[in-house]
């Protein structure tokens, strides 16, 4: 009985998800091929290849901006992982006075608006010479997005007990061997979860990269943003679809690689 009742609710939820997530994607695809599509036409009356011609003509410039965005996003993800491993291990394995307060303070950057955070860190970076540089952009993005990695790693360490490292220590493994051969493989799901969020935050950030990079560091969001106000919506739609394709492709590659590695070790 309950199964019969749940079927219409599931169908309704699937329709709702389709409208909310697939609907805008379908509109973007139609706009990419029909920039003159207007109300009240249900479907485009005319089709055009202007957007595709623009992408073909500017492919080198687009690839340069896209490459820099992927580069500083990957560097940001790697830096947050290195910075958060030790504090996440300490928070997950030890209990001390003020632990909740300190953890809340470390997670606070995720609650600060990007514009407020950017103005403060921009002044500091100008004083130390990190403004208008790729290392400055990576460090600013890592400072802004590390709470997502920290929270994921704390949960990852809490998902398995300290006995794994203790057994390896009793067998003679030093801290580096325990980290690389024991704890990091067990942390892979948490690293993927935290890294995915950090990558998306860094890849989609516009104002922080524009302010800290000073226009010297190319970014795909900086290239895309001026086209959003164009009368020809075909170019903006195609650039937006390309913007969406990069993280989706990256996540598929990561999923396939991790699944193959787990199956090779007999863990999946």
UniProtKB/TrEMBL annotation:
Family (UniProt): Belongs to the binding-protein-dependent transport system permease family.
Predominant cellular place of this UniProt entry's protein: membrane
Protein location: Cell inner membrane; Cell membrane
Pfam families: BPD_transp_1
Any Gene Ontology CC annotation: plasma membrane
Ribosomal protein listed as a keyword: no
Keyword list, A-Z: Cell inner membrane, Cell membrane, Membrane, Transmembrane, Transmembrane helix, Transport
UniProt cross-references to InterPro entries, sorted A to Z: MetI-like (IPR000515), MetI-like_sf (IPR035906)
This protein's name: ABC transmembrane type-1 domain-containing protein
Membrane topology: Multi-pass membrane protein
UniProt key word NADP: no
Signal peptide annotation: none
Listed transmembrane segments: 12-34, 70-92, 104-125, 186-215, 235-258
Lineage: superkingdom: Bacteria
Domain ABC transmembrane type-1: 66-254
Gene Ontology BP annotations: transmembrane transport
């Amino acid at each position: 009985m309950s199964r019969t009742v749940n079927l219409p609710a599931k169908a309704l939820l699937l329709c709702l998800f389709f409208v909310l997530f697939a609907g805008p994607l379908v509109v973007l695809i139609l706009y990419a091929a029909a920039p003159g599509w207007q109300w009240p036409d249900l479907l485009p009356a005319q089709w055009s290849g202007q957007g595709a011609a623009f992408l073909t003509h500017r492919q080198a410039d687009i690839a340069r901006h896209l490459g820099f965005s992927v580069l500083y996003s990957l560097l940001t993800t790697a830096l947050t992982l290195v910075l958060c491993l030790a504090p996440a291990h300490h928070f997950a394995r030890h209990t001390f006075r003020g632990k909740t307060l300190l953890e809340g303070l470390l997670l606070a950057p995720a609650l600060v608006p990007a514009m407020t955070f950017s103005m403060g860190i921009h002044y500091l970076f100008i004083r130390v010479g990190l403004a208008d540089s790729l290392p400055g952009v990576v460090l600013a993005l890592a400072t802004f997005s590390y709470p997502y990695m920290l929270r994921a790693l704390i949960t990852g360490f809490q998902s398995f007990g300290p006995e794994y490292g203790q057994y390896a220590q009793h067998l003679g493994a030093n801290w580096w061997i325990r980290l690389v051969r024991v704890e990091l493989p067990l942390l892979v799901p948490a690293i993927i979860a935290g890294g995915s969020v950090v990558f998306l935050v860094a890849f989609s950030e516009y104002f922080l990269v524009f302010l800290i990079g000073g226009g010297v560091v190319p970014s795909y969001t900086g290239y895309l943003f001026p086209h959003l106000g164009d009368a020809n919506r075909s170019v903006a739609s195609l650039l937006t679809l390309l913007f969406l394709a990069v993280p989706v492709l990256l996540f598929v590659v990561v999923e396939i690689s991790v699944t193959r590695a787990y199956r090779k070790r007999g863990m999946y």
